[in-house]
């Protein structure tokens, strides 16, 4: 029996299509349940494929979710690259980061449920591809503002960058507390007013008041 007849296409384009079907299914399931409660069978049924295809293409559930993180990170970095070419790249970075988190709430759930509390390859790959890259890129972005005298010379740019990421991420990581205790909705976070609020808080803390 050939590979194709067993549902394993040899055509690279068709193989990628099947992989994307499984990744899309996993992303959709994350919107309904936690990573640990999602089974290979759940993913395969959602993708209308055999369970064996998960192992065939990704080596198992963890490999599939690592691939999902890689796909998400690749898309996110392209969007961030466009933001950095904007007239005000810091403001564009803030707006793009908020937009990414709002449109990828299942991924935010995976981060909150799994990567902040469990060590392993999933967490390692996520840190490498997303926080790790932002930790290199954002201080360099801020250095451009510091070189222009817009950020005080005594500001530690790494610490400032981490503080900005914390301002952006915390409302999503603690969503139940944000909604129940503070009555701040996702619609609030999606507004230009919220992005401008974050930008103002950050700039007021780091700016050179001589400018």
Summarize the structure.
The chain has 12 helices and no strands.
Description of the structure:
There is one protein chain. The protein has helices at residues 12-30, 40-47, 52-58, 61-84, 89-103, 105-115, 121-129, 131-147, 157-173, 175-182, 186-190, 192-206. By secondary structure, it is mostly helical. The termini are far apart. It folds into two domains: 1-59, Arc Repressor Mutant, subunit A (Orthogonal Bundle); 62-206, Tetracycline Repressor, domain 2, CATH 1.10.357.
Shape: elongated
**Superfamily (CATH H level) name of the largest domain:** Tetracycline Repressor, domain 2
The proportion of strand residues reads under 5%
Number of helix segments?
12
At CATH level 3, the topology of the largest domain is Tetracycline Repressor, domain 2
List key phrases describing it:
73% helix, single chain, disordered N terminus, 12 helices, mainly alpha, Arc Repressor Mutant, subunit A, 211 residues, 0% strand, Tetracycline Repressor, domain 2
């Amino acid at each position: 029996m050939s590979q194709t007849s067993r549902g394993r296409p040899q055509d690279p384009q068709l193989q990628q299509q099947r992989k994307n079907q499984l990744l899309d299914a996993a992303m959709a399931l994350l919107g309904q349940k936690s990573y640990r409660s999602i089974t290979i069978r759940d993913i395969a049924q959602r993708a209308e494929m055999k369970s064996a295809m998960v192992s065939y293409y990704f080596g198992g559930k963890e490999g599939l979710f690592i691939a999902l993180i890689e796909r998400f990170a690749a898309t996110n970095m392209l969007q961030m690259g466009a933001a950095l070419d904007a007239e005000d790249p810091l403001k564009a970075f803030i707006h793009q980061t908020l937009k990414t988190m709002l449109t990828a709430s299942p991924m935010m759930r995976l981060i909150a449920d799994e990567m902040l509390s469990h060590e392993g390859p999933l967490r390692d790959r996520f840190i490498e591809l997303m926080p790790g890259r932002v930790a290199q890129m954002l201080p360099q972005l801020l250095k451009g503002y510091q070189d222009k005298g817009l950020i005080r010379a005594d500001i530690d740019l790494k610490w400032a960058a981490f503080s900005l990421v914390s301002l952006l991420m915390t409302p999503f990581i603690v969503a139940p507390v944000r909604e129940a205790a503070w009555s701040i909705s996702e619609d609030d976070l999606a507004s230009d007013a919220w992005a401008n609020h974050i930008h103002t808080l950050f700039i007021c803390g780091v700016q050179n008041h001589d400018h």
